[in-house]
Amino acid sequence: MRNIAVILAGGSGTRIGNELPKQFLQVAGKQIIEYSIDAFEHNRLIDEICLVCKTEYVGYLEALVEKNHYKKVSKILSGGKERQDSSLAAINAYTDDDAILLFHDAVRPLVSNRIINDCIEAMKHYNAVGVAVKTTDTIVSADDNECIHFIHNRAQLRNMQTPQCFKLNTIRRAYELALTDPDFVATDDCGIVKRYMPDEPILLINGDYSNIKITYPEDLQRMELLIHHNNIE
Q1: pTM for this structure?
Q2: Which of 53, 131, 178, 220 is the most buried (most CB within 10 A)?
Q3: Packing angle between helix 83-92 and helix 189-196, nearest 10 degrees?
């Protein structure tokens, strides 16, 4: 079975307040997406890397791959307007049903070898695997008046991260079912499997609180601190 990292780099990054998509911003001398690619390029269990981005950045990424001499990047695909469009572009690019696709946000640049290895190990026994950390804040539901409606049991709550990993035939089938739903909208791929293939178990492995997603300007400062603290090059 081939282990294929699919790095999703189609976001616009509007919330970070920069014209350049956030995955291309520089932190500690490298672009955010370079850290993400490096993590999978240097992992011994990853066979191949597929990058998915907006059409106008395909040439940009081709130049980046050439500059860094990435050997595992085999495909650079054009994504779509929504996240699920980018995932679907990668799904449609492969035909080996037993291949394992690890979908990873380009703006989670500090994913560790341990997380990647744990995902691949878990895929020996499951068709779908997610990464999550325990929620540290109390989570509440609000009513229409912005008053507390319900306080959730924090012990059962998790914050999802990436990668999210699937056998190709499993995630392809989930999307086939999803695309027949006129109300289909998704924020992540585990959610698609859970909704449209509810009998398919999705194992959660432990993530890491340093596996942050770059969303707001303050996340850039936190990323730089983590890079220096962990001696990441």
Answers
A1: 0.94
A2: 131
A3: 80
